[in-house]
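Key result, reporting period 2: structure in, sequence out.
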């Protein structure tokens, strides 16, 4: 007993753990400062439908003054925990809608859609519907060109509340995608009830789709499921022509991935669209 307490006490003063806690606190403070001083920006990854660029997924980038780019996988979970995701998410929505409105005014970019990733806490707290409507209204963006990407886990947190929010935004024309599909715990019964436009096959299934028969079976099943529910099915993380060809052969005609382009700064994304043309 005493020994255990001793160990715990020792663990508490473990300098490595203390350093980790300090690093988190520092990163949190840096995020707040970064949001106030314009260190965040959106990159845009093209999404290809039937050979043409249909739109972009907006992906958040943080250019830290000392550390350079910090990956979303590092700061998004922290922002979720400390609550800063509410402000960060609002910033992303506003920036994405602003971009959407600017593209709508340019002939060759007017047909593009923009997809925004939404985090669970952002969706369930802090007046999410009002936040989206405010971003649309203040920028003049067309709701029908905005897609919100949700993940499976967050939909199950409070199904009735989730459906109510989705239905309300759908009423304005906003579309919904289920991101990373196949990695969570979606119930097929809910899938039928949710007003979705799109399923995104998680890149974890796409990666080895040519060599792992299980991944191939899962990818094909998601395509069949989504298609028969009347949804667009999009493959994420397509890196090779062979992967694209396999997916195409099995009925998946929409994809994103390094095969065409990684997430790009706005100007480079626009140049790519001018080169390839849009889907409309
Ligand atoms: P996600 O929404 O599933 O985004 C796809 C991720 O896969 C992106 O990573 C993208 O850069 C990467 N990717 C795209 N094509 C390929 C490919 O061909 N191969 C490989 N290996 N990777 C590819 P990123 O930008 O690091 O974002 C990671 C995650 O962070 C996102 O996953 C999303 O969950 C989250 N995230 C990014 N931006 C935001 C945001 O604005 N808000 C919220 N809440 N989450 C965000
Ligand atoms: Mg996404
Ligand atoms: Mg994804
Ligand atoms: Mg992901």
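The corresponding designed sequence is given below.
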């Amino acid at each position: 007993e005493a020994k255990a307490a001793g160990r715990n006490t020792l663990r508490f003063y473990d300098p490595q753990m203390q350093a980790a806690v300090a690093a988190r606190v520092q990163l949190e403070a840096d995020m707040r400062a970064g949001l106030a001083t314009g260190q965040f920006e959106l990159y845009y990854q093209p999404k290809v439908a039937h050979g043409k660029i249909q739109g972009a997924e907006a992906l958040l980038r943080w250019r830290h003054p000392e550390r350079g780019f910090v990956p979303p996988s590092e700061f998004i979970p922290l922002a979720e925990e400390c609550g800063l995701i509410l402000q960060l998410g609002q910033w992303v929505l506003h920036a994405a809608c602003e971009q959407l409105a600017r593209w709508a005014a340019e002939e060759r970019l007017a047909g593009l859609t923009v997809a925004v990733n939404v985090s669970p806490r952002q969706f369930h707290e802090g007046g999410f519907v009002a936040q989206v409507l405010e971003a649309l209204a203040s920028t003049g963006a067309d709701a029908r060109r905005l897609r919100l990407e949700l993940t499976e886990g967050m939909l199950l947190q409070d199904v009735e509340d989730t459906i109510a929010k989705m239905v309300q935004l759908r009423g304005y024309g906003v579309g919904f995608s289920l991101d990373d599909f196949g990695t969570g715990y979606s119930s097929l019964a809910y899938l039928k009830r949710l007003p979705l436009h799109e399923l995104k096959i998680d890149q974890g299934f796409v990666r080895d789709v040519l060599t792992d028969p299980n991944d191939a079976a899962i990818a094909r099943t998601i395509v069949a499921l989504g298609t028969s529910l009347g949804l667009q099915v999009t493959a994420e993380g397509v890196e090779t022509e062979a992967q694209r060809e396999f997916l195409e052969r099995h009925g998946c005609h929409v994809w994103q991935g390094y095969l065409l382009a990684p997430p790009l700064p706005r100007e480079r994304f626009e140049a790519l669209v001018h080169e390839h043309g849009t889907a409309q």
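DSSP finds 13 helices and nine strands in the chain. The chain has a mean pLDDT of 93. This case is discussed further under Risks and Mitigation.
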